[in-house]
Amino acid sequence: MTDIKNVDEVPAEKPRGMLMLRTLTMPADANPNGDVFGGWLMSQLDAAGAMMAYELCRGKVVTVAVDEIVFRNPVHVGDVVCVYCRVIHVGNTSLKIQLQMWTKHNDEARTSRVKVTECGITYVAVDDNGVKRHLPRELVEHKDELILNGYESMYSGNSQYECY
Ligand SMILES: CC(C)(COP(=O)(O)OP(=O)(O)OC[C@H]1O[C@@H](n2cnc3c(N)ncnc32)[C@H](O)[C@@H]1OP(=O)(O)O)[C@@H](O)C(=O)NCCC(=O)NCCS
C-alpha cells in the first residue's frame, strides 16, 4: 500500500548547529516595551559565534561582518535563549559561522520552542597586535569535514582540539 502524505504537512523546523549559548533573559535585558532588547540579543549571537571561533582559530578573533538580522519573533523576559552555531565557510584568515537563535517561552513546561532569528557572522583571526593571521593548519585541512559534519567532527582521534 502506498503511504500517501498530506501535501500541506510541512515538517517542523528544528535548531541547526551546535548549542553554544543558553541563558535566561532577565528584566535588566528588556527594552522600554518590556520585551528583550534587540541589541542584547545581537550581542548574544556575537558572543556565541565568538566562542566557537576562538576555539577553532586557537586564539584571538575579531568580528568583521554581520549579515542581515531579522527578528521574526519577540523574546520575553523569563524566556530561555539558545544560540546554535555551525561553520559554513573557512577562508585564509577568516571563517563564517551561521547562527540560529531560538527561545523557549516561559510557559509551564518550557515546551514551546520558537525561532527568533538566523544570521551569518564572519570572524577574522588576529595576533596580539590585532593584525590578521592565517587560520590554524589543522582547521584548514579539516574544513570540508567541519562544514559537512559540524563542530564535533574536530574532536576525533589525534585532533589538537578538545571538546568543551
Ligand atoms: C578585521 C580586520 C583585522 C581585517 O584586517 P584587514 O587587514 O583589513 O583584512 P582583509 O580586508 O584582508 O580581510 C581579512 C579577511 O576578512 C574577510 N572580510 C573582510 N571584510 C569582510 C566583509 N565585509 N565580509 C566578510 N568577510 C570580510 C576577508 O575576505 C578576509 O578573509 P580571508 O583571509 O579568509 O579571505 C580589521 O579590519 C579590523 O581590525 N577590524 C576591526 C574589528 C573589530 O574591532 N571588530 C569589533 C569588535 S570584535
UniProtKB/TrEMBL annotation:
Keywords: Hydrolase. Residues 15-129 form the HotDog ACOT-type domain. Belongs to the acyl coenzyme A hydrolase family. It comes from the Bacteria. This is Acyl-CoA thioesterase YciA. One of its GO terms (biological process) is acyl-CoA metabolic process. It holds the Pfam family 4HBT. The keyword Ligase does not apply. One of its GO terms (cellular component) is cytosol. Transmembrane segments: none annotated. GO terms for molecular function: long-chain fatty acyl-CoA hydrolase activity. It comes from Ruminobacter amylophilus. SUPFAM superfamilies: Thioesterase/thiol ester dehydrase-isomerase.
